[in-house]
Q: What sequence folds into this?
């Protein structure tokens, strides 16, 4: 099934955008061999702000990716999880207790505490491709995205723990997934080898954590310099468009 809380069609990465549907649900024909995509948006900003400088660039990048898929007539199933607008719950002491209680020993309250986690993990499990759009906040993840990772990386659900493995006791239980990271930042210099690369705690964290969601292939596209709004920023946006479009024949 295709679930999309909010879908848009745009005329370019920063062009005019037209709302197509709200809370759309489409049933795929049983037996269809379609790519199952989980889209995650983490920005606190919307992509349709009247003031262009306030728009979420990471959301617009994701919109552009899906707009191109639709324009090419590529069929896929979609689950849209907007953690920027609908933040997952933060972990609690009782959540941790519930998680580490053996399944056959969990009471009603334990099971209720894990319902949200179970749903989010199910969405990950169904996906062949994860499209993650996120800004860099304070050189790392938005808190809502970190909360999502905390809910979905769970012992005996997405990874197991075996002390017999020595210094590497964790092993993923899922596999075969690809991840596209579409991210934006206000400054420059966060790429590998650049002057602020050591301050980038966003994509290295995502790359590390995604291993325990079964991700085996990662594509990363960045738009930088949003706070400058200069020619370098405009060039970065153009390059991102080209890279996004070049991904499609690699994945479909």
A:
């Amino acid at each position: 099934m295709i679930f999309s809380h909010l879908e848009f069609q745009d005329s370019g990465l920063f062009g005019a955008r037209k709302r197509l549907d709200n809370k759309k649900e489409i049933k795929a024909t049983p037996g269809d061999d379609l790519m199952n995509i989980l889209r995650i948006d983490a920005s606190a900003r919307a992509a349709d702000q009247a003031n262009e400088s306030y728009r979420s660039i990471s959301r617009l990048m994701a919109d552009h990716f899906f707009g191109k898929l639709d324009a090419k007539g590529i069929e896929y199933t979609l689950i849209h999880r907007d953690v920027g607008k609908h933040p997952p719950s933060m972990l609690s002491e009782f959540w941790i207790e519930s998680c580490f209680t053996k399944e056959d020993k969990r009471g009603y309250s334990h099971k209720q505490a894990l319902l949200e986690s179970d749903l989010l993990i199910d969405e990950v499990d169904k996906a062949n491709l994860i499209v993650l759009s996120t800004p860099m906040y304070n050189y790392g993840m938005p808190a809502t995205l970190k909360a999502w990772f905390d809910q979905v990386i769970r012992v005996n659900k997405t990874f197991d723990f075996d002390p017999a493995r020595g210094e590497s006791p964790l092993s993923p239980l899922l596999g075969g997934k690809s991840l596209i990271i579409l991210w934006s930042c206000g400054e420059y210099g966060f790429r590998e080898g650049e002057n602020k690369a050591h301050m980038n705690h966003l994509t290295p964290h995502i790359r590390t954590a995604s291993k325990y969601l079964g991700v085996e292939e990662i594509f990363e596209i960045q738009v930088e310099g949003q706070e400058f709004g200069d020619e370098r920023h405009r060039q970065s946006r153009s390059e991102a468009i080209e890279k996004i479009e070049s991904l499609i024949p690699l994945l479909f």
